[in-house]
Design brief:
Layout: H1 20-40, H2 42-45, E1 51-54, E2 58-64, E3 70-76, H3 81-93
Antiparallel strand pairs: 1-2, 2-3
Length: about 100
């Protein structure tokens, strides 16, 4: 949760809006927010499952993983976010 990028991938033919450095800065900010929430409010409201941030050109889902890692998934702004988030959570948490 320090913003280091461990693994990355991108679908072929998809436009990249941010540089690697800009993405790293965004991850650092997200990591700090998750750490703060975990330390201050998680005991009261429960463990965070994911965050969704919608921009004009894209949507980003951040999911906390085991051992302090975060999964950052970016999708087109017109994407069905519910279906995508459900799919990510099933993969991450091995739910049927």
């Amino acid at each position: 949760m320090v913003g280091d990028i461990e693994v990355t991938g991108q679908s072929e033919g998809i436009e990249k809006f941010l540089t690697t450095e800009e993405t790293k800065e965004n991850l650092e900010s997200a990591a700090q927010a998750w750490l703060h929430a975990r330390k201050t409010i998680a005991k009261k409201i429960g463990k965070g499952l994911y965050t969704l941030t919608a921009y004009e050109k894209l949507k980003r889902v951040t999911v906390p993983l085991e051992d302090g890692f975060l999964l950052l998934a970016t999708m087109d702004s017109t994407c069905d976010q519910t279906q995508t988030i459900d799919g990510i959570l099933k993969l991450v948490h091995n739910h049927a």
